[in-house]
Amino acid sequence: MHRQILFRCPRTGMNVQHRIDDVRFESSEPADSYVPVRCPACMSLHFVNITSGKLLSERNGPVERARSA
Q1: Which 3-state string (H, E, C) describes 56-67?
Q2: CA–CA separation, 20 vs 7, rounded Å?
Q3: How does pLDDT run across 20-45, given as a tens digit for each residue?
Q4: Which of 19, 38, 46, 68 has the fewest other C-beta atoms within 10 Å?
């Protein structure tokens, strides 16, 4: 069985949908588990929480990106 997670790419700011297997993450996994996801928006590897869809870098709040003028 599959389920979708939605996260925001920190590089592009785009919302990204990714499908993960529920079978891979059984009830033995804690709710604070992160999975590596290859982002189709920037092709980088992000670690996404399997429950909330938040990135590992967002544990202490969202990351602010500097913008050039």
Answers
A1: HHHCCCCCCCCC
A2: 13
A3: 876 555 555 666 788 899 999 999 99
A4: 68
Judge whether 41 and 12 are in contact, CB under 8 Å: yes
Place of tokens 């993450």: 25
User: Tell me, what amino acid is at 52?
Assistant: S
pTM: 0.67
37 vs 46: CA distance, rounded Å = 5
For residues 44 and 56, give the distance between their C-alpha atoms in angstroms, rounded to a whole number. Answer: 14
Backbone phi, then psi, for 63, in 5-degree steps? -85, 130
Where does the pLDDT of residue 58 fall: very low under 50, low under 70, confident under 90, or very high at 90 and above? confident
